[in-house]
Design goal:
Layout (H helix, E strand, L loop, with lengths): L1 H32 L4 E4 H18 L2 E7 L4 E4 L1 H17 L8 E9 L3 E8 L6 H4 L10 H6 L7 H11 L3 E7 L3 E9 L3 E2 L2
Parallel strand pairs: 2-4
Antiparallel strand pairs: 1-3, 3-8, 4-5, 5-7, 6-7
Helix pairs in contact: 1-6, 2-3, 3-6
Length: 195
């Protein structure tokens, strides 16, 4: 019985390391191979992302809402942008504040003067101010994420940052501990087609 538990732990660690290696290879591909840019409705990218994270949202009792103004079409690498959205929504779900009865992730999009702003907002545990400046660095994990053991390696947000940088898009983050976090993706107008 003890050997079975050891084997299960080893198998779990192999899966985690395989996933980490795959993410690192993906990060290398972004810089070496470039992007496969096509025009795609932004809402399709969001819906594809939600399908992946929906089981985790349901098991965490988190509502995901979407409100995308003008439903723009964006010029992007759809596979990569879906990866970005999955990472951001998944983070919101992993850091849910279990003490709250109402838990949500709101995905909104709004026109700005020279860009389109896509926001992913949650009412989770939030991020300490001291961690905000390092959050997009490769292998960075806050003290809390290490203590909560979410299974991450600190590479997800670095991948998000680098994919968006390769698209010439940008990302920022606002957070208050105990209140929640908002990631804001800025899509320049030259990558938009608004009907």
């Amino acid at each position: 019985k003890i050997y079975k538990e050891y084997l299960k732990d080893i198998d779990s660690e192999i899966d985690r390391l395989t996933n980490l290696i795959q993410k690192l290879l993906d990060l290398t591909k972004i810089t070496e191979q470039g992007l496969n840019l096509v025009e795609v409705p932004l809402i399709e990218l969001i819906e594809d992302s939600i399908k992946v994270v929906k089981p985790l949202a349901q098991s965490s009792n988190v509502w995901i809402t979407v409100d995308i103004q003008n439903n723009p079409t964006v010029l992007c690498d759809p596979e990569r942008i879906v990866e970005v959205l999955i990472n951001l929504i998944d983070n919101s779900l992993k850091y849910t504040d279990l003490s709250k009865t109402e838990r949500y992730v709101d995905i909104t999009g709004q026109n700005r003067t020279n860009s389109y702003l896509l926001s992913i907002e949650d009412n989770g545990i939030g991020i300490k101010e001291k961690d905000l400046e390092s959050i997009f660095e490769k292998f960075y994990r806050s003290d809390f994420s290490r203590s909560r053991d979410t299974g991450g390696a600190g590479i997800g947000l670095s991948i998000v940052y680098n994919i968006l940088k390769a698209h010439n898009w940008s990302i920022g983050v606002e957070s208050k501990q105990g209140k929640g976090t908002t990631f804001k993706i800025k899509i320049p107008n030259k990558f938009l087609l608004i009907p």
